[in-house]
Please model this.
Amino acid sequence: MRCVHRSNGYPLWMVGIIFLNLMVQGVPQASGFEAVTFQRLLDAPKDPQNWLMYLGTYNAWRYSSLDQIHRKNVGNLVPVWAFQPGVNDFEATPLVVDGVMFVSSSYNRVFALDAATGREIWHYYYQYQKHPKTLEVPYKPYNRGVAVGYDKVYMGTLDNHLVALEAQTGKEVWNIEVEDPSVCGCNITSPPLVVKDKVLVGATGGELATRGYIDAYEAGTGKRVWRFLTVPGPGEPGNETWGGDSWKYGGGSSWLVGSYDPELDLVYWGIGNPAPAFDGDVRPGDNLYTNSVVALHPDTGALKWYFQEVPHDVWDFDAAYESVLLDVEKEGQVQKLLLHTNKNGFVYVLDRTDGKFITAWPLVKTLNWATGIDAEGKPIGRKELPPGVPTLICPGLGGGRDWNHGAYSPRTGLYYTTGVEYCLQVTVKREKPVQGKIYMGADFPQTMYKPAEDSHGHLDAYEPLTGKARWSYRTKYPLLSSILATGGDLIFTGDIEGYFLAFDAETGEKLWSFNTGSGHRGSAISYAVNGRQYIAVPSGFGSLQARHLHHIWPETKDFRSGATLFVFALPD
Model:
């Protein structure tokens, strides 16, 4: 069996600057790069000097074939430049196009930088119609990144707009409201996905009394082309899985980014938890399409297939994470597979042509919400939550793995990801839904995160189809940074103490580290300019998850925030 690779810090008071008019700095334009056409995005695996999209390539491998930096010389890495966006907390993934880096920060700032020197070319500070501190969502002020397509840079905003910028100058080209956040409560924290001539985007809101959706917009004009509602209404297939009018407030946010298979012409997107998150009695039924992976036609938004990983979720799990696309050769036949991690602590393997379940395997040991997954892919031995009774759920609210992404290396054939062993205490209570407001259906103690028998984090290398661990690296605290795999047989990630780390992809041996001064919450990338390979990583601790870790690890309450982009290379 083998996998086939087919080509297809400034102080916080400066936040007040968002009240100023939109600013585009009058410095030289970001010239010298070619338009990022759909064909360039398709060819991204053959273009390793660039990092053209959030997950690197449409198959979501987060892999760079660059190998100038490798196992034998990674110990010589040095920082060559750094950049501060001026606001704390840094969850982004930088993009690089022909020597120009595009990176976003909290509060929807976007910067174009010289990728070899860090020199700022232009910046854009989004102007909110309403101050983000008054937006009633629990996710602010974070932004995970932008998308590039054609001659534009695209970004979703905290007040639920989609913005297109001129890539050369940062000038705003169009700005549309996806949905009124004062009604839906929703916003956009992850980057869009450019497919063909469309920009696809999802929204947060799984903990809100609202209905989720995935939208597609014309890349040139911002005109909406289609909307896929993740909670079907009356008369639509799947509405029968919602009791009464619970569908009106059913949740199902699409808060991360999808993948795309050009051969099948399908987009794969993970859907979040239903609302209320814990009180399932008010929404009887399986609650489609929450906690599902959906396959959509990018031209129309029509549903090709779905697979629901957790029917009638009552534990606030999510299927919103990335879908990793693998072509696997077995007995002379190529299977088109999809590898998908759920917050529930299991990794699912599906046939991506039709959504058929193949297998699932556990990512963590601390699991009590179910005893396993059956031959149809459904949970067995479910631990239901009695109303009014404090109940321990494992894994905890952030999941057996947080949203930060794994990586797949075609050189080793292994899937690299993180896990965390911990639990959550929750008491189910009845709540009345109010459109666009928080709708959890639960009370939490002041210290809602609870230790497992052996609470810790880990970085692991797995055989993707069996879940067999090839190696594991234990950490005292959860790892909340994405994984980067490279052609130099290296694995990069960052920890919440501030260390950026490099490992041998084959053995798991730690080969190098650098203290960036603040914990890692974003995603490293690799790129090249003028023949020199670089590794870039945002450093800046913060997020909803990070705010609660001190319940188990008290010292993390004092871990420093900040925001600095560090770029490393071998010495000249």
Remarks:
- Helices lie at 38-42, 181-184.
- The radius of gyration is 22 Å.
- Residues 366 and 404 are 19 Å apart (CA to CA).
